[in-house]
Structures are given as C-alpha cells and as structure tokens.
Design goal:
By secondary structure, the chain is mainly alpha-helical. The chain has helices at about 20-25, 30-40, 45-65, 70-85, 90-100, 105-120, 125-135, 140-155, 160-175, 180-190, 195-210, 210-230, 230-245, 250-260, and strands at about 1-5, 15. The chain has a two-stranded antiparallel sheet. Helix 3 (about 45-65) runs parallel beside helix 5 (about 90-100). The chain is elongated. The N and C termini lie far apart (about 85 Å).
C-alpha cells in the first residue's frame, strides 16, 4: 500500500510506502514504524533473526574498525542502526567510526543523539558522564552547552545550574549575543537572587541593549541587596550610577547622603 498527501507543506506530500506514512504519523524511525505496524496488524516478524542480523553487523563494524577500514566499518554500523536506530551503544560505536574517518561533526552529532536518548529515558548519570567528557575537550561548543543546561535542569541542582547559566552567558557575550546572554543571567538570578555579581552583569547588558526600564529595575534590586549585605562602597557606586541615569530623582540623592553619613 502507498500514500500521498495533497497538501504541499505536509511531510507526507512526496508519498511512498504506507510504512513511511506510519513513521511520519507516529514520529518513529522507519524500522520502529514497520515493527509497530506489524504488531498492530498481527503480522509474524522474526525478531530473533533481526537481532542476530544486527549483532552480525556490529561484529563486522568492530572488526573493520580495528583493521582501520573506516569505509567497511561505516557500512556495517549503518546497517545495524537501520535495524535499531535508538541503540545508544551502537550509536557510540558509530561516533568512533566517524572519528576514525576524521569526521568530527558527524561524530559529535551521534554523541549528541546518545545524550538526547539518555536524557529522555532518563539515564541521567550516563548522560552526565558523556557530556562532561565532551565538554572537557570542547568547552565552548554551543550544542554541548545547551545539552548541559537541559541536563542540569533535570538533575535539580540549583547551584550547579547557576554555574552552567553563567558559563553559557560568558560564551554568548563573547559571541556578541547579548539578548541570549541576558536571558541566561535572568534565569540564574531567579535561582540565586542574593548574588550582586549577577545583577551587575544584567544591568550592564540592559544598558548595552538600551533597555532602560530593565536597567532601572536591575539597579534598584542591586541597591536593595547591597544595602542588606552592608556593602557600603558598592552601594554608593550603584546609587551614583542610578543618579547619573536619573538626575532628577531627589530620593536617590537623599539615599546616597544617608549612606555617606
């Protein structure tokens, strides 16, 4: 059986075998869709033979990799992944095959796929180990940092998440992406409202972006925080900055005078 959608923007517009439609409809890989359909239609599938076939492909891939035959290893691992595309260990083997062929972008793509799979399962410890190892080699990779943030949120460790958000903001500022950096710092501030350094950075970015209302709000919160912490010198600097932004505000001048007493 075949299908074809008449809507040009539909993913099924090109048409094809019905199993392909089922893969699109259920958002599954083709092999998973085929097995799912077979199960629903009560068709007999020799899954044991499929498993043996996949294992044979893996054995061939590992053997070819040891023999430094990247082309043969690639062909074998692709055959295996076609049978079980969500198998994390096979996907990691695929990454090693890409490494052997000096294809770092493809190797990273496979490892990111594994991280996504483990985060969804969830297998948090395995995902964390892999992300940390990859970040040690490539600490400014945006895709890795995004995964690191997502995983840190899953881990539920606020202090660690604040550190990750700060690191992400550092990279975004260096890449001249101030709006995204400000968003990262704002999330960090929501988790750690008693950190003056976060508010200073937020104020600086608000000023750079011309967000006057947000700048005033950040400096007002910084003023309140510094006063509570008894940081007189920093408080005076912040009040002076606010006065320069709003010289007509008599309350700010009186506040500064009280601090100087």
């Amino acid at each position: 059986h075949t299908f074809k959608c008449m809507m040009r923007r539909c993913a099924a517009f090109e048409g094809g075998p019905f199993v392909q439609f089922w893969a699109i409809f259920t958002r599954q890989e083709p092999i998973e869709a085929a097995l799912d359909l077979a199960d629903k239609l009560k068709l007999s599938i020799d899954k044991e033979s499929l498993a043996k076939l996949a294992a044979s492909h893996i054995e061939q891939a590992e053997k070819a990799l040891k023999q430094k035959d990247a082309e043969a290893a690639r062909a074998a691992i692709d055959e295996a992944l076609a049978l079980d595309p969500r198998n994390a260990q096979w996907r990691l083997l695929s990454a090693r095959v890409w490494d052997s062929a000096n294809r770092p972008a493809e190797a990273l793509r496979d490892r990111l796929n594994v991280i996504d799979t483990w985060m969804a399962d969830p297998k948090i410890a395995q995902a964390r180990e892999l992300i940390d190892r990859l970040l040690a080699d490539d600490p400014e990779n945006a895709e890795l940092l995004d995964r690191n943030l997502a995983l840190t949120r899953q881990e539920g460790q606020p202090r660690k998440l604040v550190d990750a958000l700060n690191h992400r903001a550092d990279l975004l500022e260096r890449r001249h992406e101030p709006e995204q950096a400000l968003a990262a710092l704002t999330e960090a501030h929501q988790l750690q409202a008693d950190d003056p350094a976060l508010l200073r950075r937020m104020a600086g970015l608000c000023q750079d972006l011309g967000r006057r209302a947000e700048l005033h709000d950040a400096l007002a919160r910084l003023t309140q925080l510094l006063e509570g912490l008894g940081e007189s010198e920093q408080l005076l600097e912040t009040l002076q900055r606010r006065i320069e932004l709003d010289p007509e505000d008599l309350g700010l001048r009186l506040h500064r005078a009280r601090v100087l007493e």
